[in-house]
Amino acid sequence: MTSSSVVRASAAAQAAGARDPWRSRLTRADVRFAPYFFIAPFFVMFAIFGAFPLVYTGWVSLHDWHLIGDHTFIGFANYTALFADPDFWNALKNTVGIFVLATVPQLMMALGMANLLNRKIRARTFFRMGVLIPNVTSVAAVGIVFGQLFARDVGLVNYVITSLGLDAVDWQANTWSSWIAIATMVDWRWTGYNTLILLGAMQAIPKDLFEAAALDGASPWQQFWRITVPQLRPTLVFTVIISTIGGLQLFTEPVIFGNGRMLGGTLGQFQTVTMYMYETAFQRFQYGYGAAIAWSLFGLIVVFSAVNLLIVRRAAG
Amino acid sequence: MSQTKRFLAVTVAAVTAMGMVGACSKNTDTKPAADGQVNLVVDTFGDFGYKALVAQYQQDHPNVKVELRSVQKLDDYKPKLTQYLAAGTGAGDVVALEEGILNEFKTQPQNFVNLLDQGAADQQGNFLPWKWELGRVGADGPLIGLGTDVGGLAVCYRKDLFAKAGLPTDREAVSKLWPGWDEFITTGKKFAAANTGAKGFVDSVTTSFSAMLSQAGDTNFYDRDNKLIADSNPVVRQAWDTSMKMVSEGVSAKVPTWSKDWEAGFKNGSFAVTMCPSWMLGIIKTNSGAANAGKWDVASVPGGGGNWGGSWLAVPTQSKHPKEAYELAKFLTAPEGQVAAFKEAGPLPSSPKALDDPAFLALTNDYFSNAPVGKIFGTGAKSLKPVVLGPKHQAVKERAFEPALQAVEQGKLTPDKAWQQALKSAVKEAK
């Protein structure tokens, strides 16, 4: 009760309170509680849509929980079963594989494009806004269009490949080809987004650093690697973390690529962890097991984000 | 301020804010209909052919408004319906249950209105006896669904591609080409040798596999006690072996059902033949487009008739208007309703009266070269025998056996390995 605003407020309240003690108490309550009231909506929303589902999912994961049937408490049995489940490890392998295949080139391209957009070029705003357009496109539309591009018999990509005299690729049949197709969709959508974030950070780098470097005879290439990239470190960390979270939750693109089925190809070539979770919970009705997958994924995202954080700090520092 | 007081303040603020959020969201569903207006939602997958019927129903019942909701694939429909049932809200007042998923929903009959309580007993004569029985949970249990259609089998073929390959195009002559599956494969080999530019004779072996299973007329993956017998049932093994022969003889276009290549394949003529239970006619028409009108025709299926697919209409207990919902379901599944639905989208009636109706038997389909579809599908429909389907039939078929068949088509697995993989997945799906 010593902050200055409160002191000032109670001084005002004293003046008013001389006439009306009830009103002064109201004023004091107003000053005290109003801030909490104003910030409450976020916490309420978070409690309803963030914390509650998280905790509830954890609770469900400790049960043999049929979606429209019985619920039996079984402790950590779902988790032990999960670690012995080859389908889960296959899904995890696919998720990490597609994540690496998509994220590394994506951030490289974003860095390069941001560097280009940071120069004095014609129609700069046009290009800067333009890179964001793919991100505004609905992910379902992206999936449908790319699904058609990568179709085996009628796809444009295979049309180009075969007209070059090469054999058509059955994109869904092989692990590597399905990963490439999906990574392409992800990159098309998210490169521009990361470009703009990196561009914003680039513009905050003091110009005199570059001027001084130029005076010392540093080439643009040296300036980029010695000044720009190290200065971008916090932002790079941010984009890597965001990409990690998004990449490990990859769902819509591979689902639509696989004709809306959760299997991810005939042998699960591109079934991601979230697809496996959906299949388990909503197609096999094993809700408890699905919840265990969800929590494991949460743990994995935390671990991956931490590892990436360390790598990026080391690399850019 | 003490800790408790601070906590109290935050709580009060939070609760107030929550109250505001609650006050803002209006729930239109629970609003009582003051003027006697009843809104009903009908949930189906694919096209049940109900558009014209619903329009008529609304005209006859001015106080009822019907919304038709449909998702394209059964695979997307089932999880949605399950979520609605689990949440206790969101499902339509009338929902379609396909035979492959019916048994799974029948294990939780409390989710559905017992239609016998609504007076459905007097409808029994309207349905093929087995169709009626399957809608019940056990012989004396509640009735949860009224039958819509059955899945009478036929083969749809492209006349233009047949002509190109030097095969007969007349539907009688084409039917004579394949009394059994071996002759079907022989014809396919002839077609492939003619180099018509198509990728293959039949779209994919998965559709043939389903057709062969549905001809069994007894059991598939499950026995009558709901025990998984996929590994030992000779019916399954035989359908598998014939499918494998189709792959090795180069008869299949290797196009997975429901894929982009499949949809486009109807337009481009990637394959000349597909299995068509009568509900497939609408799908073929939609995918082939107006440009291919008159190129398709309907012939008989190798190996004799069988039942693939067919649905029921049920009323979830969460419906606020079970009575009105039942009336609507009754109307849609009445003999006249079934004939009208067949005319619009092709699902074959499950009502003997509809199957005997001269108006039904006289129906032709102009898209399919004026094929007498009423006669083709109607003949023998009354003698169809249902296959015993276990609780997870659809899952075992679509998520264990079909991917394994496709993996062989893709050249990713040998037939032996694929068989092992299918059985392993089947056990997992059936759990």
UniProtKB/TrEMBL annotation, chain A:
Gene3D superfamilies membership: MetI-like (1.10.3720.10)
Record bears the keyword Cell membrane: yes
Membrane-topology descriptor: Multi-pass membrane protein
Record GO biological process: transmembrane transport
A GO term from the CC aspect: plasma membrane
Occurrences of domain ABC transmembrane type-1 (ranges): 92-310
Pfam families: BPD_transp_1
Keywords for the protein's UniProt record, in alphabetical order: Cell membrane, Membrane, Transmembrane, Transmembrane helix, Transport
Major subcellular site: membrane
Membrane-crossing residue ranges in chain numbering: 33-56, 96-117, 129-151, 171-190, 236-257, 287-311
Database matches in InterPro entries: ABC_transporter_permease, MetI-like, MetI-like_sf
Localisation per UniProt entry: Cell membrane
Entries under PANTHER family matching the protein: ABC TRANSPORTER PERMEASE PROTEIN, INNER MEMBRANE ABC TRANSPORTER PERMEASE PROTEIN YCJO
Family statement: Belongs to the binding-protein-dependent transport system permease family.
Protein name as it appears in the record: Sugar ABC transporter permease
Organism: Kribbella qitaiheensis
Automatic annotation (TrEMBL), chain B:
Pfam families hit by this protein: SBP_bac_8 (PF13416)
Key words of the record: Signal
UniProt cross-references to InterPro entries, sorted A to Z: Bact_solute-bd_prot1, SBP
UniProt signal peptide: 1-23
Coiled-coil positions: none
PANTHER family hit by this protein: ARABINOSE-BINDING PROTEIN-RELATED, SUGAR BINDING SECRETED PROTEIN
Descriptive protein name: Extracellular solute-binding protein
